[in-house]
Description:
2 domains; six-stranded mixed β-sheet; five-stranded mixed β-sheet; disordered C terminus; binds adenosine-5'-triphosphate; ATP-binding
Amino acid sequence: MTHTPLDGTGKDDRDLGTRVRDAQPFVPDRATAERREGPVRETTVSDRHLVRRLARELRPYWLRILGLLLLSMLATPLALLTPLPLKIVIDSVLSSHPPPSVLASILPTGSDAALLIAVTVFFVAIALLAQLLDLATAVLRTVVGERLLLDLRTRLFRHVQRLSVSYHDLRGTTDSTYRIQYDATATQQIAMDTIPSFITAVLTLGTMLYVTTQIDWQLSVVALAISPVLLLASWRYRRQLRTQSRQVKKLESGAMSVVQEALSAVRVVQAFGREEHEEQRFVRRFHEGMWARIRYTLATSRYSLVIGVTTAVGTAAVLYIGVRSVQTGRITLGSLVLVMTYVSQLYAPLKTMSRKAGSLQGYLASAERAFALLDEEPDVKERPGARPLPRARGEIVFDDVSFAYDGERPVLQDVSIRVKAGTRVGVVGATGAGKTTLVSLLNRFYDPTGGRILLDGVDLREYRLADLRNQFAIVLQEPLLFAASVAENIAYARPDASREQILAAARAAGAHDFIAGLPDGYDTRVGERGTRLSGGERQRISLARAFLKDAPVLILDEPTSSVDLNTEAAIMEAMYRLMEGRTTFMIAHRLSTLDGCDERIEVASGRVTRMSEGVHPHA
Ligand SMILES: Nc1ncnc2c1ncn2[C@@H]1O[C@H](COP(=O)(O)OP(=O)(O)OP(=O)(O)O)[C@@H](O)[C@H]1O
């Protein structure tokens, strides 16, 4: 294995420069080939698979869901009791049938007034109980549902943060946001609303059917005759509703990304006067979403219409036959009223089940999307039993490394270089040559598609990912700050840092003076992405971050490209202080910036070559 040594000694010039190898075809690995085939799997998993997955997700909450179910089930006996006062009033107060034996035994015989009062009190008591039950169910449903949702969102967020950079490159942030914010709620809806409603509906249906059969079995048979139609409608609309709902979600998350993009680049939009254009893009995307939603609503309305008309036909049939039965004296008028109430209550669960079957399709489409995100495998993985790495010395070797973002066009090809610990390497090359890509492989934002990279003689893939990334401090061209205080932003590299350590890092980065001049000093809030500070100020804060991190390897990606010459000189001075004793890769367009480096390499056409003294990059 011959490597280009970059050890700052200038010796062994014989081996310097990229090894020109025999031309080798570029063979993408599996992960890259999959990446090329498109973004995250938009799978349409089978219902059985999805339901099983859902059951697995809900298992930890089963006791609480069971409690909710039991509470919901109490609604059935209350629903049965509700029409009873009316029947007693019609049959025993307004007509001369004897009251039920329970009432007859406690009330004075023949007193209609006492019976009426008793029935009224009974009526209020049932209503009160029903309300209390509703209240308790709503409270339990909300508490358990919110807990479940928070847990799922937390898992999604944790997972999405650990997904590879290539995933985020491909998907953008809005789709993930949509899945966490909106799609995740589907699981809550299914667990807290659809499942309990279904089970309660089945129970109510069974009980109502039994009671109605006891009063008049012929009427219950007539009432039930519509069930096959309802089942058929649910089956027929199931696929359509799911497909349409899936499409709505996709379009909505796409439309949201327009808003997100336009607002995060609001300065550019305003500077170029492109508000109108962005608005049109927004309207176009939402327009597509609007029609998809309209189509979905029309489908659910058609479905509701079928359900509504079918149950109305059933009710009318029971009414017709019921009135005939009262006329022939087979049942009393009170019993008909009771049966009619039960029939409407019988249809309520049937309607609930049918409607829930419709909305369930929307929830399942969302759950599918949330689970797909959760199941997304990161391209960059940690091996089982990976090595810990407390602190590296900082020797880095690129051994025949190739890389392509899309699996087709290689950005880097057969790169072999050796960097001794503590060497300062300047990286130059034309725009788009692959400089950033080269350093992005170091902390495993991406893995090479060919070859390997060694840190202290060990393949990067052997190390624990968190430990490996801890070895690098990065200062980017566009420093990214969070909407927090200056001190919090510096301490982002080491949350346990003391105030003194933060101040020392800021001093080392030459940032202390300007921070002290801010309205609230180190407690000044910097605004979203640090917009309240100038580019140079942001850069110094990110430099202070790097000082505080005190990592053995430094990656500086054109850190001074957006500041004036004076600021650049000040930042460079701090930068060279930071580089002392650390292996450093510093990317720069201006060669003068790299004067203090031990070695310079040039990236061109995917190859890496050592620059001879006086040779300038084609920038
Ligand atoms: N996330 C990405 N997905 C796909 N292609 C990418 C991605 N990032 C960079 N590229 C491509 O890889 C090539 C190298 O990009 P890279 O950012 O490494 O260049 P660079 O030398 O750092 O450029 P600059 O000096 O302009 O920052 C370019 O052709 C670019 O289009």
